[in-house]
From TrEMBL:
Pfam families: YtzH. It comes from the Bacteria. This is Uncharacterized protein.
């Protein structure tokens, strides 16, 4: 995807994290997605 769509996904993830009662669980659940974002964003740098 392009950088803008990735950033929108990251923003949405952050908003969900703010509202998550268990942030640690939220991070664990989304670990694969976070790794994918890092890889995707790395392609732009």
């Amino acid at each position: 995807g392009n950088i803008k769509s990735i950033l929108q996904d990251v923003y949405q993830y952050s908003q969900n994290g703010v509202n998550a009662s268990d942030l640690e669980q939220h991070i664990q659940t989304n670990r694969g997605q976070l790794t994918q974002w890092v890889d995707d964003i790395g392609q732009f740098s």
